[in-house]
Specification:
This protein has about 110 residues and is α+β, with helices and mostly antiparallel strands. It contains three helices and four strands. Strand 2 (about 45-50) and strand 3 form a beta hairpin.
Amino acid sequence: MWTKSTNSKGISKAAKGAALEHKAIAAMTEIGMYVAKSVDPQCPFDLVAVDPESGTVYLVDVKTKSVRKNCPPGWTDKSTRINRVLSKKQREFVDKTGLDIQLFIE
């Protein structure tokens, strides 16, 4: 039987990701950017943000901070954090198009 993956607070990863995407949208619109959300689940980025003053377009991938559980004693907070980087598909997109994908991590 399939079960949803949840964190310690009982929130599914999908719900946490969706909430963080909306938080990113709110943060970008508050500073005056236009923001569009991708509807394609295979899209290499989550959001497109446009600075209306400069015309600069940003492709944004939203990622949540994660930490390793059950680490050996003495590990610092920094060493338990999981580093978030572009996926292979995202790197291929960047290489092919020459466009950058910005990470919004929280």
